[in-house]
């Protein structure tokens, strides 16, 4: 597998703590201190109550498949040895409007279906970066 | 709320040839398209006081084009960041500037070497600097065909939309391109050809994808009064709307964001668009719907109100969108078959239809046209125009 050749995430000031947690193999989202709403991706302001206060809270790392693709075209040479590969959009069990993306870490893309239960898999691609991937959950 | 309905007109359109390798700079492409559009209108550069474009770091801005062409003085310009989703807002904002009296004659252009220099999400090119890319690119997910494949799959999951229905869009548009001398792809295709074309990103095939194109197109926007004195029949900017929400962010608005890939920002702006023009979907004679991929046509047929949500597939299979159907769509062949100039060639084709000079592909008696931008995926906003003939 060529995960070491993957593009690295361009982390921003809001998302840095999320990526640091992923590095520890922890999946987190933000919980608004003002209204309690969970949110993802990382932002410094709540789009419901506009509070600037939040906490990072753990989620279970489980969800269901909303949509997916099976990519065949080599769009990036560094991933040429990975095609075909599946990329999923996953709804987190803690909130259906929190979508996380990731590739299918193991299993047959032909078995993918809407609503399929999946769980997060953490893959360390180098000494600095860990990625969140997904596999079918029993 | 104030409205600029019917106050500005498109008085001319111009193109460069479309190709896979223009061999020239985007500045040269822009210049050629601008001069062609002015010639079509019967105007000269001395009468231009506004320039407008959009780009994603891939083209030449107005403040380079104006001195390069020797425009005497620019009183209004727009250098809009963005891709296809903002394409129609450029012309809309030019119409607004004309209606406000800030400028009298604005040339809107888009010039790209989208095949030979800057392929969208293509090999070797960094993704646009959008925060949310960080959560996607490490999984090899960043190219537009992948994104639209994801949305198309969601639509298939929700409504049973089929490959054959997507293919019908490609086949129907190719039939129009056969009649368009400007089109890059003029050989007819069948549904079997479509189904035999290779996967790009399932569920999308090669023939679901638009043509990466080198080329430019320009339109001249001026006041209705001035347009009436010019060479060509004016086409009025009757309705315009643009805007949107956020991208894949939890709890953001009601659009495609976060929760539902099967509804686009087009559904959000459509009521404003129709209200400004004082028409409804039933009044549209011809629709040029942004077709970076077949799926974007299907979802816009629903979101602009031509059929119910989930029925876009059945609607195209019924033949309604064919050139002789109830709603001819992408009469030039669209980005799938004419070429991809990132939105503006849809506007130019709508103008041709409303002037009655679309040749073998003319929709008889077309008086009202809808032309639309990328419906709000990726950058999470869209834009659209309703144009009508000034008869």
Tally of extended strands of chain B? Answer: 11
Order of helix and strand elements from N to C terminus of chain A: HEEEEEEEE
CATH homologous superfamily of chain B - what is it?
Thiolase/Chalcone synthase
Summed over residues and divided by their number, the pLDDT of chain A gives a mean of 94
Largest interface comes to: A-B, 49 and 41 residues
* Strand percentage of chain A: 35-45%
- Identify the CATH class of chain B: Alpha Beta
Which fold name is given in CATH as the topology of the largest domain in chain A?
Answer: OB fold (Dihydrolipoamide Acetyltransferase, E2P)
Estimate what percentage of residues of chain B fall within beta strands: 15-25%
Shape of chain B: globular
Cα radius of gyration of chain A in angstroms? 16 Å
Task: Give a verbal description of the structure.
Chain A is built from 1 helix and 8 strands; from the N terminus they run αββββββββ. By secondary structure, chain A is mainly beta. Chain A has 2 domains: 11-58, no CATH class; 61-138, OB fold (Dihydrolipoamide Acetyltransferase, E2P), CATH 2.40.50. In chain A, the strands form 2 sheets. A 5-stranded antiparallel sheet of chain A has the order 6-5-4-7-8. A 3-stranded antiparallel sheet of chain A has the order 2-1-3, covered by helices on one side. In chain A, strand 7 and strand 8 form a beta hairpin. Chain B has one domain: Thiolase/Chalcone synthase (Peroxisomal Thiolase, Chain A, domain 1). Helices cover 32% and strands 18% of the residues of chain B. Chain B is globular. In chain B, the strands form 2 sheets. Chain B has a 9-stranded mixed sheet with strand order 3-2-4-7-1-8-11-10-9, sandwiched between helices. With 391 residues, chain B is an alpha/beta fold. The longest helix of chain B has 16 residues, at 26-41. The interface between A and B is large, with 49 and 41 residues.
